[in-house]
Amino acid sequence: MNRRLAIGITTVALAMASTACGGGGSSTAAGGATSSGVKLPDLHGQHLQVAAVWTGPEQQNFLKVIQQFDKLTGAQTSFVPTGDDVSTFLGTKIQGGAAPDVAFLPQPGVLAQFAKAGWLKPVNSAVDKELSSNYSSGWKNLGASGGKQYGVYFKAANKSTVWYNTSAFQTAGIAQPPTTWAEFLKDAQTISDSGTTPVSVGGADGWTLTDWFENIYLSQAGPDLYDKLTKHQNKWTDPSVAKALTTLGQLFGKSSLIAGGNRGALQTEFPTSVDQTFANPPKAAMVYEGDFVATNIASDTKAKLGTDAKFFPFPAVDGGKAPLVSGGDVAVALKDNAGAQALLQYLASPDAARIAVQQGGFISPDKALDLSVYPNATQRALAQSVIQAGDTFRFDMSDQAPAAFGGTKGQGEWKDLQDFLANPSDVAGAQGKLEADAAKAYGNAG
């Protein structure tokens, strides 16, 4: 999944303003040192360009980070919005000789493709030092390809969170959130019996369905099979996939448990799936998606985080461990210059993370960052779950796949799981479609 659709579309005026933004402040030093002691070079006279998918609040959040970088170094950094199709946007820029200095990639699969094409510049020793000091090996390794370190994971996502309307749970008499899939289904039925539809599904955005599958599969099948399926070393016709789809079908196959039924879910975009859960009165009691749901709740509803809206970890399935599926955005250098490396070095430091975190709606995988800087208990709990997971988490499977399979609207896994939501009894048919599309995208049919 990518939560790039979650925050909404910024206006043209905002995009133009943000592009022009960046180097307005004067430098505090000719090459500054951050509060944590990171020494940055003097970049006066250098103009840098950073490209990312972020819009709205996410974009404004990041602009504050690069403004501080500019003050420390004297650089002038502008932000370029990529639109949803990051790989196509950047590929066109690179091939046209107009690559930005640094870009954020939302998918490890794209990082691997860009590295193979020779489009990325390895990090220097200063960046690598920050990564080794501040990141677990799991996060560092996600930014590497072919034995070389290319990326800095600046932003992380906990994609194993279920958000619930506390009043709907109280009305149904549910005192504690479920911890297992069996309890989840039982509570869903109890909520339904109380008069509220239990689950909101944003099925119009196919990436949400990949996230449902991945959490069930990681918990039920375990990390080893998860890794093999991610790399297409196991086929989607494997019995473990059939078992996970059958389990997901226990929810998707009972339309009374889904807001609007299956047809309605397929017409519901992700932001709406959140809105209807925290409407008054609620149209659903729960919505599954990542920590970024908190941003939607805060900006689009009247519900108060931690009071009206809370979350619980995605439930464990069939005796497996509760899953922790992560997502994130990795910064990479597309040009070989001192400014690009300096920006990566800064982004790998707790100083940059602190600015982003304090504004809310942001989780950093930087373990050197003091959790007390998060603005509220909900954000601290979300961040703590990511940091405490160490190297046991697994990155979003679809984001590691070739974009043609795991990251393109209307095709591949997104479309195949939408078809499954429409007809959840056809497990074998869904497996066949998934395997055919995966084999084509990975190029390893047979």
From TrEMBL:
Residues 1-22 form the signal peptide. Keywords: Signal, Transport. The keyword Signal applies. This is Extracellular solute-binding protein. Belongs to the bacterial solute-binding protein 1 family. The keyword Signal applies. Gene3D superfamilies: Periplasmic binding protein-like II. It comes from Streptantibioticus ferralitis.
